[in-house]
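cron nightly-structures :: item 1 of 1
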Amino acid sequence: MAKQIKQHATRADVAKEAGTSVAVVSYVVNNGPRPVAPATRERVLAAIKKTGYRPNNVARALASGTTKTYGLVVPNIANAFIASLAHELQQEALANDMAMLLGDAGDDRQRELQLINNLLSQQINGLIYISVDRHPYIDILQASGTPFVMLDRVDPALQVNVLRVDEREAARQVTSHLLSHGYQEVGIICGPLERLNSQDRLHGWREALAEYGVHERAEWVFSTPYTREGGYPISASTAILILIFYKPAVRRS
């Protein structure tokens, strides 16, 4: 005997159960555009619960012109900072009755392109984007007409909306702080040197060294991938280098 497929409840089913019209059910589900009497609203909500009706988001999107969904494309969700960022964005989306679709590129540029195309095909309302490398797919996003914001350092010539930390100034300030307390050998651990944010941090670090008349040394720069795995060996190497080759930092009197 063939298994029967359970039919989903429709707005007509809800209207029949509530003893009202389909239009009134729509007003309750969409919270407008016309007001509904409190007693009628309660009957409709009770009917929705009883019938198990769930709005068809695809149909709603076609009617309203919005999917109430946005995408987030990141280079690697294993990165603790990015994971924390994704969590906060998800919370904000839920608070505003929106859905967030996460795309994890896994540090793969081709996978990043695939994710962007998939999200755009789902008619998202906007995209928040951190690229795997310094060559984001800006042309594809601009051609799609979908609003987007970059959350990383990008070439200013691209003229796109960017929300980011001034990492150059941050690196300069933290290095200056250490130098102002008498430390003379201040190293820096940064990401891959081809990354723009790594270059920003190096520039800020060098500016502070120059300001205090300290000559940088090549062995003070430690470059490693932005991963948990990349952090362990570089931390161990740094500690060993300090113990073997350097005397404890001397403060000025």
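cron nightly-structures :: done
The first helix runs from residue 11 to 18.
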